[in-house]
Specification:
Strand order of the largest sheet: 3-2-1-4-5
Low-confidence stretches: none
Order of helices and strands: HHHEEEHEHHEHHHHHHHHHHHHHEEEEEH
Number of domains: 3
Shape: globular
CATH superfamily of the largest domain: Hypothetical protein af1432
Number of strands: 10
Bound molecules: fe (ii) ion
Number of helices: 20
CATH topology of the largest domain: Hypothetical protein af1432
Helix content: 40-55%
Mean pLDDT: 87
Strand content: 5-15%
Distance between the termini: 15 Å
Length: 481
């Protein structure tokens, strides 16, 4: 299995050279707006980009940069999230979309001087006044013939991206890692409960595999996190919080070491709960005041357990702090009450606080006993709970989850039922879905459909549905294919 997956990765994912070229492109694009063409540093950046372009185009005679469904492709190979700089990637994608521009093709005989002129030109275009045709005309009149603009329509039709069979392989591999993570959490929690020394090397390995999956295909794991009815939700909650936190961390461009610490911290944020009576954790009714007093002990108990049962290193130190702080809000409400010094909580705790609240509210299994649909949870977090969270981080998390998050079940205008596979950030109302049923019942062979594609114009999402109310089990759709 792993062997097959790594073959597939080579074919569909861009390598370091492509990633470097894309990053150089982002930097040029941004700088062209603020720096004069004659600036020496800027000219050097252009020369650097030119060299990379030459190396890449040696065989094929050209290099293409495309944007499709919020992701970047160099020569039709997808650039991983952790390989692209955050420097304006999202802004460029949005601007290109507004222009109807889907990509740029550079031919190998382009000169550095032409690249400079092109970048100056394209980065200064006003989306409201131009479109791909008028831009192409302007390029010609400027003598920039070694560059071809590709319309968004053209790029959409070609549908670059991960072919379905590779996507399936990714999903299968992601699933096995997700369940491995669940097992690891269970193991650590059981050992912590018994006050035994915990070996953390296995946990670190699992966190690294989760990072690998997320950087190449984040939605497979998000989909699994959308299942909230696992038998033992306690372990699933920790795994979900880890997946969400890592996805956010990857978008923030945290380096590998920090991601590893973040994932580790997220997995054990609630470990203190094992020290509380299990009747309290499993209590089916709403908590009374006394229950809350006990529950509010878990951050401190967690920090203590981590420091006592795990060998002290940078991972465990950060995990202890994360466990301690994850219920302290931005306005210092929450718990434990920090009386003396009101230091701002650290980035990891802020991330965990957001994704933890999201998972808890949308599962209806922790604290609140009733599940709230994910879109409503995000609204609630934005409005009623805004003072609690870092607005910048909340915005990024919102973009990741979208209106119809991966794993949700939706009704289409065609009266079909579909499972959302991937949120489409460029057009959140039109995600990538798997159609699992229609009026007649469940389909023996589900159909995959990209709702942002013009062929799928008839299929629009009417609303999200609660599969349980229709006698369906979302877990079946997600886990079986
Ligand atoms: Fe907690
Ligand atoms: Fe939690």
């Amino acid at each position: 299995m792993e062997m097959q997956v790594s073959d597939a990765i080579g074919r569909v994912l861009a390598g370091k050279k492509e990633a470097k070229l894309l990053n150089a492109f982002f930097v040029l694009y941004k700088n062209a707006r603020i720096i004069e063409s004659s600036n020496r540093a800027f000219r050097k950046q252009i020369a650097g980009f030119y060299e990379q372009l030459k190396t890449l185009s040696l065989q094929s005679g050209q290099v293409t940069i495309k944007v499709y469904s919020g992701r970047y492709f160099v020569d039709d190979r997808m650039v991983r999230f952790d390989d692209r700089g955050l420097s304006g990637a999202g802004t460029i994608a949005a601007e290109w979309r507004a222009l109807g521009l889907g990509g740029v093709e550079f031919s190998t005989d382009i000169s550095a001087e032409e690249i400079g002129r092109f970048i100056k030109f394209i980065s200064s275009v006003k989306p409201t006044r131009e479109n791909v045709e008028s831009l192409s005309e302007s390029l010609k009149s400027h003598g920039l013939t070694a560059i071809k603009l590709l319309s968004a329509k053209e790029v959409d039709t070609g549908r670059p991206g991960i072919p379905e069979e590779v996507r399936r392989q990714f999903r299968t591999a992601a699933r096995s890692t997700f369940f491995k993570a669940l097992a690891v959490v269970e193991d650590v929690v059981v050992n912590t409960a018994a006050d035994r020394q915990v070996n953390i090397s296995r946990t670190k390995r699992v966190v690294h595999s989760l990072i690998d999956h997320i950087t190449r295909d984040e939605s497979s794991l998000l989909e699994l996190s959308a299942i909230k009815d696992y038998d033992d939700y306690t372990y699933a909650h920790s795994t979900n919080v880890c997946v969400y936190a890592l996805t956010l961390g990857v978008r923030l461009n945290l380096d590998r070491a920090r991601l590893s610490q973040l994932g580790f911290t997220a997995l054990f944020h609630d470990v203190g709960k094992v020290k509380l009576p299990s009747d309290l954790i499993k209590k089916p009714d709403a908590y009374d005041e006394n229950d809350w007093i006990q529950m509010q002990q878990h951050p401190l108990l967690g920090a203590k357990s981590i420091l006592r049962n795990m060998k002290l290193d940078v991972h465990t130190a950060r995990a202890a702090r994360g466990a301690f702080e994850h219920h302290v809000n931005r306005d210092f409400t929450g718990y434990p009450a920090l009386r003396r010094e009101k230091r701002p909580v650290n980035l990891f705790s802020k991330i965990i606080s957001i994704v933890d609240t999201f998972d808890a509210l949308s599962s209806g299994r922790v604290y609140l006993k009733k599940a709230i649909p994910p879109d409503k949870v995000l609204k609630k977090m934005h409005y009623q709970m805004a003072v609690k969270f870092d607005p910048f981080l909340l915005k990024i998390f919102n973009d990741i989850i979208g209106i119809f998050p991966a794993g949700s079940v939706v009704l289409l205008t065609t009266e079909e039922i579909a499972l959302v596979l991937t949120n489409n950030e460029a057009d959140p109302a039109r995600p990538f879905v798997k159609i699992v049923g229609n009026r007649e019942g469940l389909l023996p062979n589900p159909v995959w459909a990209d709702l942002s594609h013009s062929e799928q114009a008839d299929r629009r999402i009417v609303r999200m549905i609660d599969p349980a109310r229709h006698g369906l089990d979302a877990k079946d759709f997600i886990l079986n294919d």
